[in-house]
Amino acid sequence: RDVAYAAVPIGDRAIRHARFARWLEEHPERQDDPATIALLAHHYERAVVLARSIDQTDAGLATSAFVALLRAARDENRREGLRRADHWYRRARDLGGPEPDLLEALAEHGQVLLELRHLDAARDTFEELQARAADQPSRMAWAMGHLAATTRLGGDLDLADERFEAAARLARELDDVHTQASQLRLEGWTDLAVGRFRAALPRLERAAALEARHGLDDRRSETLRNLGWCQYLAGDLRAARGHLVEAMEREGADDQPGVVAWSAGLLAATWLHGGQTERSVAITSELRAVSRANGDPWGEWTCATLEAAGRLALGDVGIARATALEAIS
Fold first, then answer.
1. Closest residue by Cα to residue 282 from 300, 265, 299, 298
2. Residue 283 and which of 139, 177, 234, 290 are 20 to 30 A apart at CA?
3. pLDDT of 241 higher than 90
């Protein structure tokens, strides 16, 4: 197969990759299938890369390829397939695209890298975004806040506080409520991530209040999920469940199965610590299978750990031991 492929002239290969990608696009019944989305991105990208290697350019083809790569990245991202999302975002950035779309890709990729704790790559991505968005103050403030988050996760808490304050000050000067809420949500999340849930709680409450007052719905589910997480850590299980259930409803309506699973996992933890063990085990067992299917080892480990604790509490010692061993491995 490889020999036959290599024997085809590069220009013909590019044409055939493009032809196959367009054929996939002509079959809308397949367009929501993750494998088709990935295949479309791959073939469009190969068409452009091969054409460029023999100095042939087609702006329309390149744009189609960038859009397909970005769609593949976003599809993985919404299902919490962060490593695969990183892969597609890198390929989209390498290929290049229209500047407004490229700025969106940089912002989204930086967030994925931040969640993966690839802090050096995240910092470089946010710095590139900041440089490209020099004439867009709101986006500059957003990038500054995410650079602060990268600094905090890297362990320099004092410098992170200074950077967060600078970003928040710029957002206030711009009277940009959306960016102000975003900064509070982000700072609360990073506090959570480094174990400072008591510092995170008032920030997330302020973010939620701003969102409710101004009808900011685009990231409200994320704020509610993190607020529920904080309240769970603070021992307020009733309030935590209320926010997590609302977050799940919003995430389901927005077709975000990956983050629905996150919220459901946190909800299972509240049931476990609230004595409703069977309910917790039912959720974590199902989510563990979903995490495995999505190639999400962190999610699988978290669910296996919770499930093992629940099984032990129910007296299922053998199953608890096997599940705990799976978590360790």
1. 265
2. 234
3. yes
